[in-house]
Amino acid sequence: MDRTVNYGYSGGVARPREFDEEAVLDIAGEQFWTKGYAGTSMDAIAGATGLGKGSLYGAFGGKHQLFLQIFDAYCARITDAVAKGLIGPDDGAYARLCAHIRAAAGEIAADTRHHGCFLAKGAAELSERDPDVTVRSRRALERIAAVLAEDIRAAQRHGDLDRGADADQLATLVLAVLRGIEALGKAGMDAGRLESVAETAISLLPRAGKASETDSAGR
Amino acid sequence: MDRTVNYGYSGGVARPREFDEEAVLDIAGEQFWTKGYAGTSMDAIAGATGLGKGSLYGAFGGKHQLFLQIFDAYCARITDAVAKGLIGPDDGAYARLCAHIRAAAGEIAADTRHHGCFLAKGAAELSERDPDVTVRSRRALERIAAVLAEDIRAAQRHGDLDRGADADQLATLVLAVLRGIEALGKAGMDAGRLESVAETAISLLPRAGKASETDSAGR
DNA sequence: ACAGTTATGGACGGAACAGTCCATAATGGA
DNA sequence: TCCATTATGGACTGTTCCGTCCATAACTGT
């Protein structure tokens, strides 16, 4: 990550950075997020950040590397946020799951700019042709699915969700619903309907005790 | 759509087109689909189609109009295909719904290139900043949701799905699941898991006769 | 004060961009 | 055989693209 070398002894000390790397990444990320990878020029980033192109290339290497660094940070942030919201005692696992689904839908519904999720947008634009993006987006989604599955297992242990359901499959379905709400929001669907999707999904989760259709699930 | 003028009488007749408009739109669409709007140049389209830029601009007006025309055609094709697959007698409505969900997931799972859905990709890239794209993608999804809802109502009438469920909400949820599977596929998730998402979703549909959780649905 | 190191920012190069222009070609009616 | 009209395709314009280069600046251990 650090591009400085300075092996062994050296008579001098380098000039320090004058810009805040985090702030620059934020601004550059906002550009990529809004205009996409191909739609964002390094000149635009230089202009928006106030950096000269020499500094930009010196610090981040190039457009692709800069994008990947931002994409990585976003993926890490989003997976951490999900984990923070879902990990906890078995006791509140089901409530946390519902709250997470509602919160995700609510955020998307409130996003009147249709700014959406950077992970989704980056994957949609680049995943097909850029393996670096594919592996990162895939890994992020796998992590989120794993956290969802763990929470679902907790809810099963506590007796809130049907113990007969396959937690991994259910988690992947919940993740699909969340990504689907995102896609619908991106396409301009009303906020109310997005939130009702979340409620409908929650209402169809296989609650423990009640008869559920999981008997016919395994194909 | 037709750019020719020729008001009233005119002494001559114009030179006819030498290219197949449909074929050109297909090729240009493939470029947009693969490389995105910003990532595709009119020169690349001219090169791929063999057309000169004069013909290209003369026939389609410009990059944005060309894209919209292709996008429109894709939306129409996809909505028609869904309608064709879902509209029918109440008798097979439930089976058609399941088959549609399975087929959609199967197609995405089989799409090893992660080429995905042009509607989703176009909306992801442009919807935020291009109202023309927003309205088109939104309208297409609304139509698909309406067809799904109609099929669900048919299945309810026939007694395959719970009559107490709100068909519109259920349809939007199914649509979200479908778009979510698309997003997961785009991000590189295994084919097997995508198909299991479809099965899990089908298994959780509120079947008639069995107790379902819709009582707690309305928040 | 000097030396050795990295940061800065704007100029620069070559390629690619969207879109225009125009000489030329093709057509059927008059 | 002209004529009016549209199609063609490549040259062209002015801009923007990514990335490099480099003179200069800032810094600290000596």
Question: What would you say this structure looks like, in words?
Answer:
Chain A is mainly alpha-helical and 219 residues long. Chain A folds into 2 domains: 19-61, Arc Repressor Mutant, subunit A; 63-208, Tetracycline Repressor, domain 2. Chain A has helices spanning 21-35, 42-49, 53-60, 63-86, 93-110, 118-126, 131-157, 167-186, 191-204. In chain A, helix 1 packs across helix 4 (63-86), helix 4 (63-86) runs parallel beside helix 7 (131-157) and helix 8 packs antiparallel against helix 9. Chain A is elongated, with a radius of gyration of 21 Å. Chain A starts with 20 loop residues before the first helix and ends in a 15-residue tail after the last helix. Chain A binds a DNA duplex (30 and 30 nucleotides) through residues 3-6, 10-19, 41-43, 46, 51-59, 62-63.
Give keywords.
DNA-binding; homodimer; Arc Repressor Mutant, subunit A; 219 residues; disordered N terminus; mainly alpha
CATH superfamily of the largest domain in chain A: Tetracycline Repressor, domain 2
**Which percent range fits the helix content of chain A?**
55-70%
Q: What's the total helix number of chain A?
A: 9
Briefly note the CATH topology name of the largest domain in chain A: Tetracycline Repressor, domain 2
Largest sheet of chain A: none
Largest interface, C-beta within 8 A: A-B, 65 and 65 residues
Per DSSP, what share of the residues of chain A sits in E-state strands of 2 or more residues? under 5%
Structural class of chain A: mainly alpha
Cα end-to-end separation of chain A: 47 Å
- Total count of domains of chain A: 2
What string, H for helix and E for strand, traces the elements of chain A in order? HHHHHHHHH
Could you name the CATH class of the largest domain in chain A?
Answer: Mainly Alpha
Overall body shape of chain A? elongated
Radius of gyration of chain A: 21 Å
